[in-house]
Structures are given as structure tokens and as C-alpha cells.
Amino acid sequence: MSDVSATRADRVPVRRLTVLYDAECALCAFLRDWLVRQPQLVPLEFVPAASEAARQRFPGLDHGATLDEITVVGDAGQVYRSAAAWIVTLWALREHRPLAHRLSTPSGARLARGAVLAAAKWRGAMWGGKQGGGQQWGGQVYRRADGWAYHPGQGWTYSAPGCDGGSCVTP
Known about the structure:
Blueprint: E1 17-21, H1 26-37, E2 44-48, H2 52-57, H3 63-68, E3 71-74, E4 79-81, H4 82-91, H5 97-103, H6 106-128, E5 148-151, E6 155-158
Parallel strand pairs: 1-2
Antiparallel strand pairs: 1-3, 3-4, 5-6
Helix pairs in contact: 4-5, 4-6
């Protein structure tokens, strides 16, 4: 299956995009909030994936799959998934449209796909890995005592706590 549905709707202008996002995912909610603050050339609407609202608006979608990968729906029925969804979302933003054009090239698409896979790997680790304890994740707090630090230019970074004074933290 391709990342973009192959229909006649793909050839009509896009005047509005609906981004289906995982409302239980801290990363997804952070990105939604970031997107809302960006100047938009094409209006973006955000609907929680697999919600009743999403099911009513888009009955033909596989709503379980929309929780696994970002899905964006155009106003004329275009469906974008995975890297194509990220690219079309960036395309809708005034300041990021040039980046979207670069990512739509063959080499750019590989970079976009890598970013999507990295985000999916992180989400998978947080969902069922050690940090997530095998439970649903989201809303976790980053604590300095746990090794997290916020740097305005970089965002959150992690450094494992040391064993100063003979007190090592063991999992």
C-alpha cells in the first residue's frame, strides 16, 4: 500500500487538512500543539485518531491503523499516511513549505521516512518497553533527578545518573 491513496481526489486542490493524531501519546500531543501555533497556508484541523468523531467523519478509514501511524485526510478525500502525512502537514505551514518540497524528492522522502520510523521506535519503546512498564504511555514527567535536562536550543536530553557517593540507581 502506498503512503497516499491513489484516487481522483489526489488531483484536486487541497483547501483543508484533518490530522488524526493519537491523543494518548505525549509526543503526538506535543506535535499537535506545535502545529497549532504555526502560521498555516492550508488550515489544519486536529481530531483524535480512532475517536467517535473520527469514525463519523471518515467511516471508510481503518481507524486502528490511524493509531499506529499518522494519517492526514484532505477535504476532497485524499488520504496521506506515514511520511507522506508528515510532508503534507509541513506543506500546509507557511514557514515549512520549502522543507516539505525538499522532503517530497526521492532523497528527501528517505529522510522523512527515517524520521517517521525514529518516532515510531520511540513511541514503541515508551508504550511497551521498560519505561512504559508494558502499559499505555503518555503524560509522563521528565525529572532532573532521573537524568533529564531541558536545553532551549536542543529540548529535553537524557544523561544517566551517576553513582556519586556510592548511590547508584538500579532498575
